Fold:
Amino acid sequence: MPTLEHYLILSAILFSIGTAGVFVRRNLITILLSIEIMLNAVNLTFVAFGHALGNVDGQIIVFFVMTVAAAEAAVGLAIVIALFRHRASLNPEAFTVLKW
Amino acid sequence: MLLLIPLLPLLGFVANAAIGRRLTKSVSGGIACAAMIASFVVSIVSVWQLVGLPAESRSITQIVYTWISSGEFDADFALRLDPLGSVMILVVTGIGSLIHIYSTAYMHEERAAEYARYFSYLNLFAAFMLVLVLGANFLVMFVGWEGVGLCSYLLIGFYYERKSASDAGKKAFIVNRVGDFGFILGVLLVFVQFGTIDFQEVAQHVAALSPETTFGPLSLITLLLFVGATGKSAQIPLYVWLPDAMEGPTPVSALIHAATMVTAGVYMIGRNAVLFGHAPETLTIVAVIGTATAFCAGTIGLVQTDIKRVLAYSTVSQLGYMFLAMGVGAYAAGIFHLYTHAFFKALLFLGSGAVIHALAGEQDLRYMGGLKKDLPVTYWTFLVGAIAIAGVPGLAGFFSKDEILYRTFASGHTLLWIVGLLTSLLTATYMFRLVFMAFHGERRAPAPGHETDDSAHGHGGHAPDGHLHDAPPAMAVALVALAIGSVVAGYIGFPHALGGSNRLETYLEPSFTANAERQALTEIASGTDASQSEDGGTGTELLLMALSSAIAVGGIGIAWYFFRANPAAADAAAERASGLRTLLVNKYYVDEVYDAAIVQPIKLASEEGLWKTVDAGLIDAAVNGAGGTVSRFSDVLRRIQTGSVRTYAASLLLGAVLVIGYYLWP
Structure:
């Protein structure tokens, strides 16, 4: 029977994987996916705590996060498509002109 | 009703200023003239009503609205017509109307837009002048006071393409500003002292006090007000702007710089006669300054060669007489001279305008001569004006000038009287020098290389030695009307000594006293005045009259001898007194002295001190320094912005780790 601790460790691992993905990958779509992983790691934490503490608040929060994540994914992908049309590239290093 | 008087010219101004450039000349000129004449008619009706009132209560006040009400300070936009004001509005609107009519012909060669601009300024000027004379308190008067200053700037600089004209406009404005500074300080002191700025209330407050024997607050107030008057009325030391003001169109010189605006200072002293009467120290200063100005300006006028400048100095000189009258307490005589002077000086200026008009812009007396036969109307009317100003018995100038001189003598200022008498000799001489040089003798052609200011005046087209045109009808009408005025205007103040009753003085008297003391004064006056004029007063007055008449004729004789009969003698005399002549031609070097003593130091202080040190060194440096500092810091800081999303995400993460780490660290 997995305990709260197991869930938290898994969540931490997932979060780290996501973070690493954001920094390591050179593809905007992969980066978006990595962000989704980070979000879901957090979701997992919420659910785990909710279960451990015996109330449903954690699960409710997760629903909200999922809706926001869906919206974020939609907007994010739209931006990625626009960027790709502009530069024919998905490498984030190609989009550094937005500065001073 | 009273409001209509200044409002009509103001409407004329608004109309011409707004749509004047789209109107033809006859329409825009017609609007301006109609506005003035309508205002004149309303003035006559108002004065008629005023005269219908009993002498004790001759005063009509109209409070248009409450202008300022702040704490203890209350000022209504109020107009008041009293005997003094009634004389003034009749002069302003009456002579103003004639000058408007004259201008329609004089300015006819201007472009339509310029023409409308000219008339809009003229109307605006009249409106402000009427506000000035109708204002029931110092603040309303100040509005008019400043307004006429503005309009004189606009009109002097009317030919703004010419540098000399725009400079003259600025000079007039700035010199006036010096005077206005004194004036407003005086007004503030009046409020501090009496808690009100209404003329009648101030007069009542003052009447309750006894006259100051030493230099006290009343003397200070009146002295400051007098500084304002010297600026507006061109007295020493602030007279320098008036001769330069001749750069404006000639009708403007007639309207502003002879008949109306320059009389504002005299009027203001008359309006505050009770106040000034309680400050004998100031009155002495006023009288001395007036006399000195009259004399100095008269001497300068003797040698000037520009026809308008002679008249300008003559104006300054005559204004000096008015101040002399004010200074010796003969307020009615001063206003009387103001009123007669308005006729003949407007006439002389308009006459000189007709000459200049006929000669295609030539203003130099040395190139005139023999104009008598070509310009008969101008000649005869001008002659009437000259005789009137010279003080030949029977014409307007004689009565008023003689009244002033008699009052000066009677008040015991013998020295001032002698100088005044000398000045009247000068007046006759320089006026007839002008007449003889311009109208008599042979025509003197311009020297080779001499160019008349054709383009500037817009009167090109008349060949200098071709047939000259006399004044066109609109100008002739104004000239003749003013000539008639110059003859008959004096009879309203026909002196006691000649069996008259000096109705003007009796009429004006209530304006120079406060309500409270009026009753007492009339009782005293009925006793003493009669006895005074009985015992020897009449004899002295007649003697003085004979003397000043002789002097007037003598002055004309001198002019005739030097400039008509024996021009060589004039040259010889000029040769003998060449030092004096140079001094006079250069106008006592007053302009140069002012330039060296005031203009140059101010320029130096402004350039080196305020501009290069304070402005460039301190203010600019502070502003630029602030900008530079920010810019240098941001040069460093902007490198943080790489534009790379990855870097931003890393800093976000780092921040989050640090914050969480800070809380989680044991």
